[in-house]
Amino acid sequence: MTVAIPELRKRFGRAAGSYQLAANLQAEIAEWLLCLLPDDLRPDAAILDVGCGTGVLTRLVRERFPRARMTAIDCSEEMIRAAARQSGNVQEIRWIVGDMRDHVFDEQFDLIVSSSALHWMEPLKSLFQSLAKATRPGGLLVASMMTERTLLELHRLRRELFPENVPARRLPSVAVALGAIETSGFALERHESVLMEQRYSSAHELLKKLNKLGVTGGSISSGGRPLSRAQLKILSNEYERRHSIANGVVASYEALYFVARRQDFVARRQGD
């Protein structure tokens, strides 16, 4: 199922003001992603950040490669505005409001990066084909994306309590994501799936932070109709009962990290 871009624009646009404060886990994932960046990238390389949000990864990558030609794209105009503002409105970063799946770039990139965004852009096969077209032969895609065990406690509980109103879609499995990458013009060089737990002071705080991130209003968490206040209260109370730890509750997040090279170059190199 494809998530409509107008829906994403609206959801994340509303969340842009509070996103930076709530996205601490996403910021950590972006920092971990830096460990996978190549050491031999030429100084003036063309780099693209896909689904840049408020520009956390964009700024980190620019600090690593200050002379690179940096481009960042996001479907939300509000997010792009926030990213540009928080980046000091520097002229060295080109900001684009658009959908990666159909945007036509005027160049190919030496490096494409993305943190905690690609899972929104279904169908994955179409997405990775677009990413391959935007990557120069021999170029790299270095990214992280959320996969199916993210918020597994919350989704499992919701399906149990309200089976008539389950989420409209689920995040992709690791296997599905890797398959889409490998059949879209990339050769995987390394990948790792990491299951993390984050603590919240209460189930109410968890739901509130997800809402600030623009997550709870979308098709991953929305069923045929929104949960009522009474249902949300039941969900929150039951979550507290089942998933409490000292001074709070826990929620799981599964992130897939990967490095993939544009396959044209791999095939040619192997044939030399």
Write out key terms for the chains shown.
globular; 25% strand; eight-stranded mixed beta sheet; Rossmann fold; alpha/beta; disordered N terminus; 41% helix; 272 residues; 8 strands
Offer a quick outline of the entry.
The chain is of the alpha/beta class. The chain has helices spanning 5-22, 24-33, 56-64, 77-86, 124-134, 152-161, 174-182, 203-212, 229-243, 263-271, and strands at residues 46-50, 69-74, 93-97, 109-115, 135-146, 186-200, 244-245, 248-262.
Can you tell me about this structure?
The chain is of the alpha/beta class and 272 residues long. It has a domain at 5-148 and 170-196 and 254-271: Vaccinia Virus protein VP39 (Rossmann fold). The protein has 10 helices and 8 strands. It has helices at 5-22, 24-33, 56-64, 77-86, 124-134, 152-161, 174-182, 203-212, 229-243, 263-271; strands at residues 46-50, 69-74, 93-97, 109-115, 135-146, 186-200, 244-245, 248-262. Strands 1, 2, 3, 4, 5, 6, 7 and 8 form an 8-stranded mixed β-sheet that branches. β4 (109-115), α5 and β5 (135-146) form a beta-alpha-beta unit. The protein is globular, with a radius of gyration of 19 Å. Mean pLDDT is 85; it is low at 1-9, 11-22, 216-220 and 266-272.
